[in-house]
Structure formats: structure tokens, C-alpha cells
TrEMBL record:
InterPro entries referenced in this protein's UniProt entry, alphabetically: CAP/MinC_C, MinC, MinC_C_sf, MinC_N_1, Septum_form_inhib_MinC_C
Protein name, entry field: Probable septum site-determining protein MinC
Keyword Cell division in annotation: yes
Listed SUPFAM superfamilies: Cell-division inhibitor MinC, C-terminal domain
Entry keyword annotation includes Cell division: yes
Pfam families per UniProt: MinC_C, MinC_N_1
UniProtKB keywords: Cell cycle, Cell division, Septation
Family: Belongs to the MinC family.
Length: 225
């Protein structure tokens, strides 16, 4: 008989709210898939649709990047009464994958406007067609990206672009420019991220983010612009 895997996510209630324990021995993509299933499970409606509950995410010994944190927060967005208070690690500091300089800005980037930022940017809002975000680091848009996004504009090929709704007129990472398809498949919903490999910009569903390694050995399911 095969070894039974521990659940990717374990939930425990406390008098102050809920603890979500993310198994640090499983691939992060598996943990995200398990978390998504649990949060969308209608059988738990008596919890999910109840009063507001504070949530603490327990990471174990795992270190996560800012993009992975955003992926978790995006999954929780379907349950408005579950309010993430913090992420906690057991024995090591909670690190953000080298992105401690992440700055949060909010608003709307309208047509003709250009938002320029040095470092990594978390933008809470929409980027409209004709609008531009340009960063020396990575770009995270919690909203619709329908304009132009240029990450790693000073040559950082490891920068990524993440958006809740990824429908850009153009993506740029470092000096690589990529145009989207003439018509978007509107049936494709959910957060996505773009990164560069083999001098091309590739777009993936957000749950693949945990598989993204420096060596980028995995090759299935890539969507090239």
C-alpha cells in the first residue's frame, strides 16, 4: 500500500478565529490546490458564510515569496468573512523571497498615465488600457491589468508580473517585449503570473507559482505570448 499523504491544509478553530496550517513538506502548488478546494467547499458553508473570523496562516518551516503570499490571499478573497491577520513561521523569520522592499500603492492607472516605481510594487487597483506600470522589480496587481506592465525595467530577468485579471495590451520583462493574443479567451478566469524563460515571456495559472524554481526544469502547460 502507498503512503498516505498528509493534507496540504489543516484547519483548527480557536476562541479568536481560525488557524490554517500549510504543510511545509508538500509542494506549494499542492497546498494551494487543497486550500482552494477547502475554501470553495459548500459543505463548510456554516463556517465560510458565518460571522467575520480572524485567520492566521501557519507556514511551518516554509519560506514563501510575496507572490505566493498574494496567491493565498487571492484564494481567501472568495470568503469575505475570513480575514487574514498574519502569516507565521515556526523556527525561521517569515521572508518574502528577497522582496522586503515591496511597496503598496492603490488607485487606478488610467489611459495616458505612467506609474514608475523603483523596486517591487503591489498595486491595489486597475490598470486601464493605455495605462502603464513600470518597475525595476516585480509587479503585483490586485485588480485588472489591461494596460502595459514593464517589470525588471533595468534588466532584472527574474522579475515577474502577477495580476488578478491578466488582460494586458503588452507585457515587458527586462528587455523582452511580448504582445498578447488579438482576442482574449474570456472563459479563462483567475489570477495569473508572467515570467521570462528562454528569452520568452510565459504566462501560468497562479497555482503553478510554487513550482517556479531558479532552474525552471518543469516544462508542461506553458503559454507563450
Amino acid at each position: 500500500m502507498g503512503k498516505t499523504l498528509k493534507p496540504g491544509v489543516t484547519i483548527k478553530g480557536t476562541k479568536d478565529g481560525l488557524f490554517f496550517f500549510l504543510d511545509d513538506s508538500r509542494p506549494f502548488s499542492d497546498v494551494l490546490a487543497d486550500l482552494k478546494e477547502k475554501l470553495e467547499n459548500s459543505h463548510a458553508a456554516h463556517i465560510w458564510d458565518g460571522p467575520d473570523l480572524n485567520v492566521i496562516i501557519k507556514l511551518g518551516k516554509r519560506q514563501i515569496t510575496k507572490a505566493e503570499e498574494i496567491a493565498v490571499r487571492e484564494l481567501f478573497s472568495v470568503r469575505k468573512n475570513l480575514i487574514i491577520q498574519e502569516f507565521e513561521s515556526d523556527d525561521i523569520p517569515y521572508l518574502l523571497g528577497g522582496e522586503q522592499d515591496l511597496v503598496i500603492k492603490s488607485g487606478t492607472v488610467r489611459s495616458g498615465q505612467v506609474l514608475i516605481h523603483k523596486g517591487n510594487l503591489l498595486f491595489l487597483g486597475d490598470v486601464n488600457p493605455g495605462g502603464t506600470i513600470q518597475c525595476t522589480g516585480s509587479i503585483y496587481v490586485l485588480g485588472a491589468l489591461r494596460g502595459l506592465a514593464h517589470a525588471g525595467c533595468e534588466g532584472d530577468t527574474n522579475a515577474i508580473i502577477v495580476a488578478s485579471v491578466l488582460r494586458p495590451t503588452q507585457l515587458r520583462i527586462a528587455d523582452v517585449i511580448s504582445r498578447p493574443p488579438d482576442k482574449w479567451d474570456e472563459s479563462e478566469i483567475g489570477m495569473r503570473f508572467a515570467y521570462m524563460i528562454d528569452n520568452q515571456i510565459v504566462v501560468e495559472r497562479i497555482h503553478h507559482l510554487g513550482q517556479l524554481k531558479p532552474e525552471l526544469e518543469w516544462k508542461e502547460g506553458r503559454r507563450h505570448f
